[in-house]
């Protein structure tokens, strides 16, 4: 069943007191560099440092309402942090299953938000069954990262905010991983103001949604090595992909070097630390992939959780 605008509105009622209504940022220098009027939806300033709190809060609140006494997730990154934080706010335990080689700073962040960390394997194919098993053992609920109506509806609340904040936007640009963020924003915008174009952006090294759209069916690419670690999904979701197929205006690809340059530009000129996964939207605008000029463009800056100790290597 396709996600509906009403579900996103209900999600907004559910979570709006628990999240930040993140600001829209502008930069004259960035607008000049992109030859468009640029607006940045600053989800890197969101609670837990990314948009993921929106979907997690919506899903976990429902789970608690239905009697869950524990939640689990399989993630070493933003989703894991969001689930751990949400669970702590709702006073239930959370177990986050991370890979054996998980980044220490990300594990520390999950623990700081009150999550219990368990290490398992090196791939999501290993982590997800373990997280689901823990949930079953302890009468808990597994919280998926993107392929879930409540998660998608929560992420879609960003679309509602954008339409309020930039009432005359021409184009909204969204990073694409599993498609939870994109499908939610697409539904919110296309079912409210269909004249606003929505373009997705993937790294060239993680173009599973691009290939899936081209092939007309979900296509897996296996493991990837892109700098944009939040977008390293092997394939789009079963629930998210049909929405992307129905509504998306275009999907473009950016190179690793373009991502680095965009991230560096935002750091140097705007003094904002954003993730490589966020920088893909800026890269698409900076390097001409959107193929428009003199338009009002809103780029979704999805997160800002960067391991500072790795920043030099990341930008090299």
Write the layout of secondary structure elements.
Elements: H1 5-15, E1 24-26, H2 28-34, E2 37-42, H3 52-65, E3 71-74, H4 78-89, E4 94-98, H5 104-112, E5 116-119, H6 124-137, E6 141-142, H7 149-165, E7 171-175, H8 180-190, E8 197-203, H9 208-215, H10 240-247, E9 250-254, H11 256-270, H12 276-286, E10 296-301, H13 311-315
Parallel strand pairs: 2-10, 3-4, 3-6, 4-5, 7-8, 7-10, 8-9
Antiparallel strand pairs: 1-2
Helix pairs in contact: 1-3, 1-7, 3-4, 3-7, 4-5, 7-8, 8-10, 11-12
Cofactor: Ca(2+); pyridoxal 5'-phosphate; Mn(2+); Mg(2+)
Keywords: Lyase, Magnesium, Pyridoxal phosphate
Protein name: threonine ammonia-lyase
CATH topology of the largest domain: Rossmann fold
* Assembly category: single chain
> What's the order of the H and E elements?
HEHEHEHEHEHEHEHEHHEHHEH
What is the mean predicted local confidence, pLDDT?
Answer: 95
Work out the strand percent: 5-15%
**Biggest sheet, open or closed, and with what strands and sense?**
6 strands, mixed
Radius of gyration: 18 Å
**Gross CATH architecture of the largest domain:** 3-Layer(aba) Sandwich
Low-confidence stretches: none
Q: Helicity level, as a percent range?
A: 40-55%
Number of separate structural domains: 2
Structural class, please? alpha/beta
Distance between the termini: 45 Å
Plain-language structure description:
The chain has 316 residues and is an alpha/beta fold. It has helices at residues 5-15, 28-34, 52-65, 78-89, 104-112, 124-137, 149-165, 180-190, 208-215, 240-247, 256-270, 276-286, 311-315; strands at 24-26, 37-42, 71-74, 94-98, 116-119, 141-142, 171-175, 197-203, 250-254, 296-301. Strand 3, helix 4 and strand 4 (94-98) form a beta-alpha-beta unit. Helix 3 (52-65) packs across helix 4 (78-89).
């Amino acid at each position: 069943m396709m996600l509906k605008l009403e579900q996103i509105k209900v999600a907004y009622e559910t979570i709006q007191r628990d999240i930040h209504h993140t600001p829209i940022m502008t930069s004259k220098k960035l607008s000049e560099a992109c030859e468009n009027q640029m607006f940045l939806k600053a989800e890197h300033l969101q609670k837990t440092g990314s948009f993921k709190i929106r979907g997690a809060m919506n899903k976990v609140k429902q789970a608690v309402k239905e009697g869950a006494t524990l939640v689990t997730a399989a993630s070493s990154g933003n989703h894991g942090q969001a689930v751990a934080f949400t669970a702590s706010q709702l006073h239930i335990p959370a177990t986050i299953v991370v890979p054996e080689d998980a980044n220490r700073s990300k594990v520390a962040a999950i623990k700081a938000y009150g999550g219990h960390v368990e290490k398992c394997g090196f791939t999501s194919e290993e982590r997800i069954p373990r997280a689901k098993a823990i949930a079953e053992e302890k009468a808990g609920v597994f919280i998926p990262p993107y392929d879930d109506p409540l998660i998608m509806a929560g992420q879609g609340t960003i679309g509602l905010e954008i339409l309020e904040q930039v009432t005359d936007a021409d184009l909204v640009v969204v990073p694409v991983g599993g498609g939870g963020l994109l499908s939610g924003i697409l539904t919110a915008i296309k079912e409210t103001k269909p004249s606003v174009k929505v373009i997705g952006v993937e790294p060239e090294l993680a173009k599973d949604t691009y290939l899936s759209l081209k092939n007309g069916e979900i296509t897996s690419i296996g493991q990837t090595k892109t700098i944009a670690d939040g977008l390293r999904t092997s394939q789009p979701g079963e629930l998210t992909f049909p929405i992307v197929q129905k509504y998306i205006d275009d999907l473009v690809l950016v190179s690793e070097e373009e991502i680095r340059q965009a991230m560096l530009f935002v750091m140097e000129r705007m003094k904002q630390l954003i993730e490589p996964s966020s920088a893909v939207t800026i890269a698409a605008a900076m390097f001409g992939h959107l193929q428009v000029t003199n338009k009002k463009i809103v780029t979704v800056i999805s997160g800002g959780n960067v391991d500072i100790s790795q920043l030099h290597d990341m930008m090299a």
